[in-house]
Amino acid sequence: MLGLPLQVIDNFLLQYNVGQALLLIFILSMLAALPLKSRKVMSIQFISFGLIFMLTPQSLLEAPYWKFLGVALLVLGPMVYMTARK
Length: 86
Description:
Number of strands: 0
Shape: flat
Distance between the termini: 46 Å
Radius of gyration: 15 Å
Largest sheet: none
């Protein structure tokens, strides 16, 4: 029953590294949050994906620039949160 969806996910991840898959999920989540028009939601997403990029082992990311993206998101997230209105 769950075999086919897991095979599709596995075939997808074999072509790309984990950093690229996380970036795709980040972009899709940002697009999903756009109709809400809430900077607080976006800042929480920045912070959470920054943590995910920073906590993912380097051996899975295959390139050091994914960690720099995590640092940038961790810096950008609180700034966006502070500029958000109540």
